[in-house]
Amino acid sequence: MTSGQASTLLTASGLTKTFPGTRALDGVDFELHAGEVHALLGENGAGKSTLIKCLTGAYRRDAGDIRLDGASIDPHNTLDAQSLGIGTVYQEVNLLPNLTVAENLLLGRQPRRFGFIARKAMNGEGREMLSRYGLDIDVARNLDTYSVAIQQIVAIARAVSLSGKVLILDEPTASLDRDEVRMLFDVIRGLRREGLGIVFISHFLDQVFEISDRLTVLRNGRLVGVRDVAGLDRLQLVNMMLGRELAEETRDHGRTGIDYAAEPRIRFSGTGRSGAIAPFDLDVHRGEVVGVAGLLGSGRTETAELMFAAAPKDSGSVTKNGKVLRLASPRDAIAAGFGFSPEDRKTSGIIADMSVRENIVLALQARIGWSRRIPRRRQREMADDYIRRLDIRTPDAEKPIGQLSGGNQQKVLLARWLATNPEFLILDEPTRGIDVGAHAEIIRMIEELCANGMSLLVISSELDELVAYSHRVIVVRDRAHVAALVGQDITTDRIVSAIARPTNLEAAQ
Amino acid sequence: MNARMLPFYATVVIFLIAYAICYIQFPAMLSTRVIGNLLTDNAFLGIVAVGMTFVILSGGIDLSVGSVIAFSGVFIAVMLRDTSMHPLPVFALLLSITTLFGAAMGLTIHALQMPPFIVTLAGMFLARGMAYVLSVDSVPIVHPFYEWVQSTYWLMPGKGRLTLIGGMMLLVFLAGILLAHRTRFGTNVFALGGGVQTARLMGVPVARTTVLIYALSGLLAGLSGIVFSFYTSAGYSLATVGVELDAIAAVVIGGTLLTGGSGFVAGTLIGVLIMGLIQTYITFDGTLSSWWTKIVIGALLLGFIVLQKGLVGLTGRSAGTAGGR
Predict the structure, then answer these.
(1) How many cross-chain Cβ pairs, A to B, lie less than 8 Å apart?
(2) Strands (E), A74-153
(3) Cβ under 8 Å to A: B residues 210-229
(4) What residue ranges define each of the domains in chain B, with the CATH number in brackets?
(5) Which of A101, A113, A286, B214 could disulfide-link to A118, CB 3.0 to 4.6 Å?
(6) Residue of A nearest to B260 (CA)
(7) What pTM, to 2 d.p., does this model score?
(8) InterPro entries from the entry (chain B) (predicted)?
(9) Which residues of B touch A110 (CB under 8 A)?
(10) Domain ranges of chain A
(11) CA of A124 to nearest chain B CA: how many angstroms apart?
(12) Which residues is B154 bridged to in the sheet?
C-alpha cells in the first residue's frame, strides 16, 4: 500500500510535550492510514511512549494537533480516547486476571436481566466476540488460566469492540513465543483487512518487517523519517534508529593496547539465564573497556544484571584472577570488587530524597557493613572530594540528589561506585538523558578510570561513544552475544551491520 | 476445576470434618437446637462479616466495624432510654449514620489515596470514642418491641429455634451472595481487588465503587449493632472489642484472598459457622477454657493464609508471568 492513495485515518502534527528537564516530543508528525499496520520505532527515550500517551489521552500535549477522521480531537484520558475510537493494548496485558474472560470482555456492559447479570447471555456474547478472532475457549474461566497470547487477543477483542477505528499495540509480542506471535499476527492481519488502522510498537525488527506496511522512526523526541517497509534496507533502518551520520565520526576505530595474552582479571564462562540471555563467555582484562552494543531489548541489560548477580544465573561460573567467585547477590558482587550503575537511574539508581553525600556513601557503607558507620566527617570529605574531582554541579553536598540535573545525578552515581574503589565497574547507558557537554565529561572519566587500571563494561546505544572508548565491543542481538570486535575492527559500520545482520558478519570473520 | 475455588472447598471440607468430629463425641450436636443457636449466637458476626467480605474482595480492610457495632448498641440504648421514639425510626436513623460514616471513610480512602488500614483505624477510634461520649456505663434496653422480637422464632423440626436475628443473618448472606456474584457492582468490587489502576483503565467507576463498598460495610456494621442489641438487650461502649478481627478471620477462613480479587460471600458464612462450632464444642465439653477458641482459630487462619500463598504462587507460575506487581 502506498501512502498516496490510502485514506488517512489519524494524523498528528507538530506534537510537542515537555517534562521538567527534557523535551520528550518535539514537533512530531505522525500519520496513520485505514487498513495499514504502521510500526513505530526508536530506542529508549526516543519518544515512542510519549507519542502513544498523547494520542490516547494519558498525557495532555503541550502543542500540536490530533485529527481522527479529519476532525480535531483532544482526548482527556484513555477512556475518552477509547470512546472516540482509539484503543490500546499494552505488553503487560491491562485486563483483570481474577475475572473471567467474559467479564473482562464485557466489564461495564454486562447484559442484565432484572438488574442481575445474565451469565449465559454474557458468556454467549463473549464467545461470539472471540470467535471473530478464531479463538474458541471457555470464557467462563478466569483470565489468568490462559496463556499471555490468549490474554493479549482477549485484550485486543475488548479494545476493538470498544473503539473500533485505531488499535495501538504496545510491545504486544515481547513475552510471546514463535507460535503465539504467528497467532497474534493472524489476528492483526484480520483487523487490517477490516480497515482498522494499527500502530505496532516492537523492538523485534524481524516482526516489524513481517507485519508492517509502513514505519515511523523517532529519535530523541524528534521525527527521523517515515518509510514504506517494502524495499527498506535493514541497515538503513538501524542507522535511522541509532542516528548515526556516516560523515561525522570522532574516532574511526576502537582503542588498542590491551595484552590479551595475560590472564584476564574477570572471566565469565557459560554465564546465562534462559529467557534472558543465552550463555556467554567473556574475559575482562585489567584496564580494559568492554563496550556492549545492541538494540533495546536485545539482552544487553540482562548481561549486566547477570554479571552483577542482580538477576540469578542458570548456568556458568565467574572467576577473578583465576579464583572462582560465588556470586549469589549484588552484595557478594560488591564484596568482590564489582560496581554497577543501572540504566534507569531514577528508579534503580539514585535515592532522590537523600543528599548527594548520602548517595555517594551508600555503596561503600553497604560494603563495609552497616554496623561500622563511616564517620560523618569522613563522609563529608569523600563527598567534597568527588564533587570536586567529577565536577558535580551542586551548591553543597547536602542538597537532595533529586534536585540535580540528569548529568550531575549520573556523576553522583559514578562517584558512589568509585568510592568503593571497584576493580570492575559496569555502566548501563551512562550518557542517557544528559546534555552533550556532560557526555564528553563522562567519556573522559571512563578513559581516565581505565588508564588507572580499572576494568569497565559499558553498555550504550551511542555507537560513536562506544567506538571512542572501547578496547573491545560485544554485539548483542536476540538475547545472545553474536559478535565481538577488537581494537582496529571496532567501527560504527561494523557494529551497525552486526546489529542488523549478524549472520553476514559471522561469515566475514 | 478452577484453582481459586480450592480455598472455598477446603473451608467446606474442614467444616464438615469438624462437625463430624463433634457429632462423634456429642451426637446431640447434630440437632436443630444446636444449629439454631449457632445461627443466633453468630448472627451479628455473620452480618458484619458480609460487609467485610466486600471490603476485603476490593483489596481493602475495615477496622472500624467492631467500634461501630458498640456505638450502635449504645446509640440505640440511649435513644430508647432518653426519648420516646419507637425502635424502628431509631434503627433507620442509626443505619443512616453508620452508612454515612462508612461512605465518608470510603471517600477519604479514595480522594486522599490513603491506605484503608489507616483511615479505618482512625474510624475505629472515632466510633469507639463516640460510644463513650454517649455513655460510659452499660445501658439496659427495655422495650416491648425488643421483647417481641426476642420471643419470636420459627420452631424448626426437632425443636430448634430459628430466631429473627438468625434469619436476618441468612437473608443478609443471601443478598450479599447475589450482590457480589450477580451484579455489575459486585464485578466492579472484584475488579478493584484485581488492580485499581487496571480497573480504572477498563472504565470501572473507582470512586463510586470505593465509596459504596465502605458505605455497605458501615450499613452492615450498623445492622449488626442492631442485631447485637437484640442479642444482649443492652448497649455498652466496651462491647465487641476486636470483632473486626473476628470478621476478618471469618472472611479469610471462608476462602477470600486477603489481598483481594478472589473469594466468596458464601465462604464467609462457613467461616463464621466454623468459628461458632469451635465455641459450641468448648461449651459442650465443659472442661476446656474458652481461650481454645482463639487458639484453634489462630491455627486455622495461619493454615489458610499458607494455603492461599501456595495457590497464588502456583497460579502465578502457571500463567508464566515473571516479575509481578
Answers:
(1) 72
(2) 86-89, 112-113, 116-117
(3) none
(4) 3-315 (1.10.3470)
(5) A113
(6) A98
(7) 0.75
(8) ABC_transp_permease
(9) 184, 187
(10) 8-242, 249-337+423-442+450-509, 347-421
(11) 16
(12) B162
Q: Is the distance from CB of B59 to CB of B190 less than 8 angstroms?
A: no
Does the structure show a pLDDT above 70 at B68?
yes
Fold of the domain spanning A249-337+423-442+450-509: Rossmann fold (3.40.50)
Q: Considering CB atoms only, which of B178, B190, B198 is closest to A116?
A: B178
A96 and B203 in contact by Cβ < 8 A? no
Of A78, A107, A146, the CB nearest to B191: A107
Which chain A residues have a beta carbon less than 8 Å from that of B187? Answer: 99, 103, 107, 110, 117
Return all residues near B73 (Cβ < 8 A) that are at least 6 apart: B131, B225, B228, B229, B232, B234, B235, B236, B239, B240
Instruction: List Cα–Cα distances, A360 to A305, A353, A422, B137, B302, in angstroms.
Output: 21, 13, 14, 60, 43
Task: For residue B210, count CB atoms less than 10 angstroms from its CB and return exposed for 0-12, middle for 13-18, buried for 19 or more.
Answer: buried
Q: State which fold the A8-242 domain adopts.
A: Rossmann fold (3.40.50)
How far is the alpha carbon of A107 from chain B, nearest alpha carbon, in Å? 7
Radius of gyration of chain A (CA): 25
* B183–A144 CB contact, under 8 Å: no
- CA B83/CA B96 separation, integer angstroms: 18
Do A8-242 and A249-337+423-442+450-509 share a fold?
yes
Report CB contact under 8 Å: A79, B203. Answer: yes
Q: Which has more confidence, B177 or A234?
A: B177
Q: Do A98 and B190 count as a contact with CB atoms less than 8 A apart? A: yes
Give residue-wise pLDDT tens across range B113-151: 999 999 999 999 999 999 999 999 999 999 999 999 998
Q: How close is the nearest chain B Cα to the Cα of A463, in Å?
A: 31
Choose the weakest-confidence range: A191-205, A307-321, B237-251, B286-300.
B286-300
Residue A262 carries which side chain, given as an amino acid letter? A
Q: Which residues of B touch A104 (CB under 8 A)?
A: 202
How is residue A177 written as a grid cell? 513465543
